[in-house]
Amino acid sequence: MDERLITHLRHVDLAVPDYDRQLDFYTGVWGLSPETTDDGIAFLAAEGSPEQYSVRLRRAAEKRLDLIAFGAASPADVDALAERLGRAGVTLVHEPAALRTPGGGYGFRFFDVDGRTVEVSCDVAVRRHRRVEPGESVPVKLSHVVINSPDPEATVAFYRRHLNFALSDTLHSPHLGEVMWFLRTNRYHHSLAVARGPHTSLHHASFELRGLDEYLRGTGRLLRAGVEKVWGPGRHLAGNNTFSYFLDPHGNTVEYTTELEQLDEDTWHPHLYDFSDPMVTDQWGTANPMSEFVARQSFNDPDRGVFVAPPL
């Protein structure tokens, strides 16, 4: 098998029609910092993260997922991965080159099998970040991104074959079969997961908080602010992480989480969990039950940006 060249998740980029409302939500309610802003574009950082930004917002006529960005260790690894993808017939949006986004760096973009734009980069300048203090309920970092696919088996195969993601666990049910695959690119249980959905779209983006107390404080702060809660608070079995899912102003699901499991990759064997078992979806039993409503909210709107690269 080819060497794993992706090191970690960097950021998720969203295009939104009501840009000002979305910017107010992510900075004023969700707890990200406007690291760099310009007319109609904002780069929002998580206080505890060395990444230049965890979310990019762009004003656009239609809502879409602009891209998901991952890191690599060196220019040689970026070049090797671009060459590997090109040789396998994957469509490159652009070849490896200097990046013009905050922090610079060197990277390239490509379309995955569903038409999402994916970026891989290295040598991005480290952002001056800080230790998040006890009781401070702001995101430390972007934890993971989950995507919907109408053919999730093909999507999972793409990321495993071309990018060497490893399978951590799978969710299934007696009636629906396999419905979610958790993929990792380092010791964390997942930085990407693929869900079975009716169309290509963003399922949710998840943000790590400092600890349990901060996670619960953040969950309560959003509830008091009147943000619509989809599911939680609770603790999943796969990944052993806490979860509280909310809707941003454009109907994207965003999650507060903490304590995502770190695996011993040499000894880990993937589980097949039956999510019709309440202990699988929520070990604590504190969350509202998994239902068709919860699932439907995370289907999101069909992504209008497939196989169309964002303008920047």
TrEMBL record:
Start and end residues of each VOC domain: 8-123, 141-259
Name of protein: Oxidoreductase
Source taxonomy: Bacteria, Bacillati, Actinomycetota, Actinomycetes, Micromonosporales
